[in-house]
Amino acid sequence: MAARLRRARWLVYIYFRCLGQQMKAILAYEADFVILMISAALVQITGFLFIWTIFQRIPDINGWTFWQVVMMYSLVFITEGVGSLFFEGTWRVSRLIYNGNFDQYLLRPVSPIVQVLAGAVGFNGLGNIITGGMLMAISLGNVQVQWTPGRLLMLVILIVSAATIRVAINLGTAASAFWIKTPWSLVPFFVHQLGEFAKYPITIYSLAVQAMVVVAIPFAFVSFFPTAYLFNMEAWSAIGLLTPLVAVYCLFMAVTIFRIGLRRYESTGH
Amino acid sequence: MRGFNKYFAMAKASLEVIFVYRAGFTVNLIGSVFYVVAMFYLWQTIFLGKPGALGVFTWPEMKAYLIVAFILNSTMTWFDEWQMGADIREGRVATDLARPIDFQLKRFAEASGPIPFELASALAIGAVVAFVFGGIALPADPAHLALFIVSAALATLLKFSIIYCVSMTAFWTTGMEGVSNARMAVQNIFSGALIPLVFFPDWLRGLASVLPFQGMISTPALTYLGAMDGPTTAFMIGTQAVWALGLFLFGRLLWRSAVKAVTINGG
Amino acid sequence: MSSMPLIEARGLTKKFRQAVKEPGLVGSLKHFFTRQYRDKMAVDHIDLSVEAGESVAYLGPNGAGKSTTIKMLTGILVPTEGSLIVDGLVPYEKRQQNARNIGVVFGQRTTLWWDIPVIESFNLARDMYEIPVKRYKQNLAEFTELLGLAEFMNVPAGKVSLGQRMRADLCMALLHDPKMLYLDEPTIGLDIAVKDSIRKFIRRLVDERGTTVMLTTHDLGDIEDICNRIVIIDSGRIIHDGDLGALKDNYARDRVIHFQLARPPESMAAICAGLPACETTSDDGLRLSVRFDRFQYAAGEIAAAVMPHVEVIDFHIDEPEVEDLIRKVYLGQLSLTAPESTAEATESAVATGA
Lengths: 270, 267, 354
Ligand SMILES: Nc1ncnc2c1ncn2[C@@H]1O[C@H](COP(=O)(O)OP(=O)(O)O)[C@@H](O)[C@H]1O
Ligand SMILES: [Mg+2]
Description:
The structure holds three protein chains of three kinds.
Chain A: H1 2-27, H2 30-57, H3 66-87, H4 93-98, H5 103-106, H6 112-117, H7 124-142, H8 149-174, H9 186-194, H10 207-216, H11 224-230, H12 234-240, H13 243-264
Helix pairs in contact in A: 2-3, 2-7, 3-7, 3-8, 8-9, 8-13, 11-12
Chain B: H1 5-20, H2 22-49, H3 59-73, H4 81-89, H5 92-97, H6 103-112, H7 115-132, H8 142-167, H9 176-190, H10 202-209, H11 218-225, H12 230-265
Chain C: E1 7-19, H1 24-33, E2 37-50, E3 55-59, H2 66-74, E4 81-86, H3 95-101, E5 102-106, H4 118-128, H5 133-147, H6 162-174, E6 180-184, H7 192-209, E7 212-216, H8 220-226, E8 229-234, E9 237-243, H9 245-250, E10 254-261, H10 268-274, E11 279-281, E12 287-293, H11 299-306, E13 312-318, H12 322-331, H13 342-353
Parallel strand pairs in C: 3-7, 3-8, 5-6, 6-7
Antiparallel strand pairs in C: 1-2, 1-4, 8-9, 10-12, 10-13, 11-12
The structure holds adenosine-5'-diphosphate (ADP) and magnesium ion.
The site of magnesium ion has 3 residues of chain C, from helix 2.
């Protein structure tokens, strides 16, 4: 047990070592990194303007008020930002497998999954995290919630779980590259786009769409259920408590799919 | 007219490229459908929950607006700042400069080539979505449809011109991903792609009306719906044309001065 | 433990499923609906044992299955059939543990991180392989010196020349003191000087550190300088496995040097007289070829003997090709101990190696 723990800590260290190197390489292009951050912030500001405009006309969407929807939005963007800033490597897997450069991950005495996760840095993520964080803070300030230490702790757990779910979805779908060989992240992108449904309360969707984002690809646990829990939205609030479990489940599934794919890895013929 | 044959050939070649990369193209397209579907559900809830609260549009009109916006957004998807930026940075433009070809027209040909395919796919998908959500409003008057087609063509030219101008930043920065995303964000809000401009509060609508972006979605969509009276329609399409051509020419100017600056400074 | 060979492969097989696709749009469409595949036996039931300390040249024409074999040995690929043990481990099951025992260099790829300075890649390797700091410093200093890495240590791997990258890759593969070194076409595309320094370096590794080496190449020079055993594979099967002595004696002695002349030579006889034991030919008057035994003459001596008689514009030396060698093995022109079956060949090789 102690040995496993030590090993896990060591892996985290290696992960940050690799990531740190990638960051250094990117920071060499200073202007790029500033533009990326600003553009990410702009995307969010326009998204915010969109909901704000809608709520100028109507008081609520199926009982969800403006600031509650903003909370969902901020969770979508923060988790997206965490995915880009810390785990952008999942988006490189398709190309690595396609051209056989994945070989090198298998020649090092470190879990290939850790190497994949640390494989790249997307600085637009920082812009997303900062603006998303600001939106979340404003939202929390505008909704009446009884803040207890327990609820505060739960907020942190929910954010971490939501980010885990998103990253796990990225990783699990990235593993599709072991079966479908294209240089583009086709399946990951496709599934990522499903995340659009996470921006609004899922009660507005038909049953089929709800089933998809709750059960099949649980994007609803990235934004909807955590928000429902935090703001005590009756029927849904309790399900929000399941978010950490869903995160563990997603991570387990992603790693399993990745491992199965790994055994199929064929490299390339030259 | 014969000089245009080569541009036509370029357009055709770039259409064929789409066929080669059709898997990527299809996934791109279907990915954008999720966005449209989410929007449909959102607006459906808003319209059906508060009938009349949104004044200007009926629900079938709103659906038509969303579909038109989706179709207009589906063209020229393979022309963006990344591609232009990469061409400029990696010096591929140098070979173009050496040939008796107009650089801007060549880009335009390449950007337009895939349009037939993009339009066909978007129309098919749009039709399915419209059907699933119970149909959309059709133009009340054939004249609206005719004017819409003119306006949509101008919108496409406008889109090209804007991207072309923005691409020129590649002469000063390598961060084209950020530049492209920023342009897209601004365009999404001010073109009316996210939400019809009439829903904006006055200050935001005022801002949108002095920017070129409204010509990309809002003007053609409102023309389709016949939501503007005759003179207003004429004025809006005129504005669209002025922006489209003006930015097209401005892009030529930018390109010329950028090339000059680079050849003088960088050799 | 020590009685077991370092590498022990029995019936090792890798079958790839290759898509059969007709060309054109119609072909792609058809393929989309009715997928057709053909099995490709890249490696076909090979037996191979390598003892610690051996240096094996693994040869074969393009597409013979060399890289596929190495990818199985390193744990990148999971074999379709057969058993494989490298230093007591099944590579694809204990991939990470196996990675600590081996160093790998693929001529076509790099294991360095593309956009970070070479030295940072080395430092990352130090952390990943958990190399003791002292050992790391010793190795780094030694390899930097021997491979001449100092001049580009702070340049990102993506920006160094091929020869530099190759040397850095070698260093990267060896920092953690692997017992076993796999080299897949390590000298491909390099100029003579770099090739030479790499060969010397590897030979030294074998002699001084006792590192076991397995090498694929198209360059006979690599083999002569580094290896003491050759294994030839063709269409996924091992067709020869034996030591290098016979090869050296029978085949690799001869070199041909070609001169391009400004004018036809005045007297062929005079040139021939200066080069006893060489075969001198001049086909169209402006070209002159001298075949010589490289253990008897150095190329420079030949040139020195020819120069006084003619005006030389240009000259080059034919390096014998591995393909040539393999053809000769097939034709029976080369009297290497022709194996009855691959299994027997392996056993005899083990016997000589032990
Ligand atoms: N990943 C792969 N997928 C399909 N076929 C492959 C793959 N890798 C190798 N092959 C095929 O297996 C055969 C052996 O390849 P390889 O081991 O690379 O040959 P060598 O290294 O001897 O040139 C070739 O016919 C090659 O096309
Ligand atoms: Mg090979």
